[in-house]
Amino acid sequence: MEGILKKSVLLIVSILTAVFALTVPVACVNTDLSGVDYPDGFSDALGSFDFTRGEESALRVMSYNVLAHMESWGGTEVPPRAKMLLKILDEVQPDVIGAQEMSGDWHKVLEANLSDEYVILHPDIDVFNKNKTPIIYNQDRLLLIESGYYAYKQGDKNGCRAITWGLFSVKETGEYVVVTNTHLNLIKDGQESKSLEIMLSQADELVAKISELSDRNQCPAIACGDYNSMESGDIPDAFGDTYGVRAATDVYDKLAASLADVKYAQNPEIICADKSIATAPSWDHIFLKGDATAEKFFILDGEVFENLSDHYAIFADFVF
Q1: Disulfide-capable partner of 186 in 24, 117, 175, 228 (CB 3.0 to 4.6 Å)?
Q2: Pairing relation of β-strands 142-151 and 162-170?
């Protein structure tokens, strides 16, 4: 009897704790950006880029790891960075954004400040957790036909390691296109072999999902993401760093064997501030399956943009 009573008490305490967590007010991120200033040089740096589309009807797809706000991840408070991101979106006018590390604070600020044409696809994983790899799309230019969220069988259970996807129809042309967004695991120190095994399994699942969606809908698929894998571990990246085994080049090679890395495979015009990083290894890639052409590939580089994230935004203009 005593054991039953103890279990009952523990159950009641657990229920009350959960209710308390849901009902007691917690500190909220400030979503009012009216008093937030851009960092020095931001507007000038952004204005130095020519964001003219390859063709007026081209589909512009962006991939951007915006860096979660958690200090343990290396992030800082969202509002000053969100103000920058919103200005970038206003200037670049992407039709689809695959965002990575979109933590709860990012969701709150963007949901309050995104212009009306943008919709966040699959913002919630469940009642407690936000999707850290959502897709954001322009509903004025695209009609959403179907969408989904798929968590990898292996890997971190932090909301990052998943695929968000959408099947869209381009309103102007009627063309169908699939867009996916993901954030693979990474090579962890002291766990290199196991980490690589997990990442390779995720790459297999991603390629299978992209192939399924592209083949079933008979349309091209554009794959955004932070793949935590580089073209080379020996060549310096955009920030001058080399990563050796942590570059997980085997994962990149597996993806590039099944999908076209549009920065290289299609020889688009590459637009960036520092021409030396045009083909520098990166964690961020836009892959393609199917019949489409990337006419322009942009890297939004420059020191001032490092105030927003430890990644540069990349985006490409596709014609079908």
Answers
A1: 228
A2: antiparallel
Q: For position 157, what pLDDT does the model report?
A: 87
Starting at the edge strand that comes first in sequence, how are the strands of the sheet with 287-289 ordered? 142-151, 162-170, 176-183, 221-226, 287-289, 260-261
| 16-58 pLDDT, tens digit each | 444 333 333 345 899 999 999 999 999 999 999 999 998 888 9
Cα radius of gyration (the chain)? 21
C-alpha–C-alpha distance, residues 162 and 142, integer Å: 23
The answer to whether the beta carbons of residues 298 and 155 sit under 8 Å apart is: no
HEC string for the chain: CHHHHHHHHHHHHHHHHHHHHHHCCCCCCCCCCCCCCCCCCHHHHHHCCCCCCCCCCCEEEEEEECCCCCHHHCCCCHHHHHHHHHHHHHHHCCCEEEEECCCHHHHHHHHHHCCCCEEEECCECCCCCECCCCEEEECCCEEEEEEEEEECCCCCCCCCCEEEEEEEEECCCCCEEEEEEEECCCCCCCCHHHHHHHHHHHHHHHHHHHHHHHHHHCCCEEEEEECCCCCCCCCCCCCCCCCHHHHCHHHHHHHHHHCEEHHHHCCCEEECCCHHHCCCCCCECCEEECCCEEEEEEEECCHHHHHCCCCCEEEEEEEC
Residue 294 has pLDDT above 80, yes or no: yes
